[in-house]
């Protein structure tokens, strides 16, 4: 099922308005596939009919459904495992030394999808009780997708989801099988909380984080929006904190707020410029 230019523009504008993401030409092919379930639900025959419906007043519910269907919520536990090992063996020990006096760590998982990233972090802390005993660990996950956040808040995953990225020992140690699926234990859920929010909004409390994970989120932004997102993260991150991006992302040529670190291509640190953007103007993203 093809997508003509006018219909594509209506859907692309909707996605950009709600999320800041760009529905570029190289993503155009997946529109029909992503919306197939919604077509069946609403009895829609084609993209052109959907575009016409979206132009009518009072179709906010349909618009929300379209945006949710187009969002890429692909994730799994310990995605890009080597990067999580860098966190466990390099970044978190560094933060343990820096925060030894307060014994508090605040972490932001931006674009957390259905919660596996935040829970992966919680498992790292739980597996190192000698280092993190009596620490206050706060991991907040945010995502623009309300559907994804609902799943993250439940902490319950299907057999397929639970088998992606974790060992059998971790599965049995941190999850319990229930009639609804595999339920995360209180031991790791107690370190995490989730809320629906765009990365282009004001950062979530507590305002200054020791570590921010923003992985595979910026790929879908155009250059100005990506720069604004970096400003948001810079304003949320402590000057001696760390930023972790996805495998295909980089700060090089994208922002002056961050620079490379000694710990590989995924880990970045704020520059002196970053400290001056903590209260940059809010970027309007419609709800």
From TrEMBL:
Q: InterPro entries, per this entry? A: Bact_Chemotaxis_MeTrfase (IPR050903), CheR_C (IPR022642), CheR_MeTrfase (IPR000780), CheR_N_sf (IPR036804), SAM-dependent_MTases_sf (IPR029063)
At the highest ranks, the source species' classification is:
Bacteria, Pseudomonadati, Pseudomonadota, Alphaproteobacteria, Sphingomonadales
Query: Know the name of this protein?
Result: protein-glutamate O-methyltransferase
MF terms from GO for this chain are: protein-glutamate O-methyltransferase activity
Q: Does the keyword S-adenosyl-L-methionine apply?
A: yes
Q: Which organism is it from?
A: Qipengyuania soli
Q: Keywords on this record? A: Methyltransferase, S-adenosyl-L-methionine, Transferase
Instruction: Report the PANTHER family cross-referenced here.
Output: CHEMOTAXIS PROTEIN METHYLTRANSFERASE, CHEMOTAXIS PROTEIN METHYLTRANSFERASE 1
Quote the EC number: 2.1.1.80
């Amino acid at each position: 099922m093809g997508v003509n230019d006018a219909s594509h523009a209506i859907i692309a504008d909707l996605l950009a308005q709600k999320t800041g993401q760009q529905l570029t030409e190289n993503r155009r092919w997946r529109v029909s596939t992503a919306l197939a379930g919604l077509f069946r639900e609403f009895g829609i025959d084609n993209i052109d009919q959907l575009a016409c419906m979206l132009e009518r007043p009072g179709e906010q519910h349909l618009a929300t459904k379209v945006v949710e269907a187009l969002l890429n919520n692909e994730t799994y536990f310990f995605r890009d495992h080597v990067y999580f090992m860098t966190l466990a063996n390099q970044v978190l020990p560094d933060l343990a030394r820096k925060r030894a006096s307060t014994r508090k760590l605040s972490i932001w998982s931006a674009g957390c999808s259905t919660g596996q990233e935040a829970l992966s972090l919680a498992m790292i802390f739980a597996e190192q009780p000698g280092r993190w005993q009596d620490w206050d660990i706060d991991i907040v996950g945010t995502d623009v997708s309300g559907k994804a956040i609902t799943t993250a808040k439940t902490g319950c995953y299907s057999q397929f989801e639970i088998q992606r990225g974790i060992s059998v020992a971790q599965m049995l140690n941190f999850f319990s099988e229930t009639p609804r699926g595999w339920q995360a234990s209180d031991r790791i859920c107690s370190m995490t909380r989730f809320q629906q929010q765009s990365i282009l909004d004001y950062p979530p409390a507590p305002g200054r984080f020791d570590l921010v994970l923003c992985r595979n989120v910026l790929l879908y932004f155009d250059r100005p929006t990506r720069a604004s997102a970096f400003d948001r993260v810079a304003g949320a991150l402590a000057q001696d904190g760390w930023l972790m991006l996805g495998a295909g992302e980089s700060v090089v040529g994208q922002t002056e707020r961050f620079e490379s670190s000694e710990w590989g291509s995924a880990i970045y640190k704020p520059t002196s410029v970053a400290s001056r953007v903590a209260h940059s103007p809010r970027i309007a993203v419609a709800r």
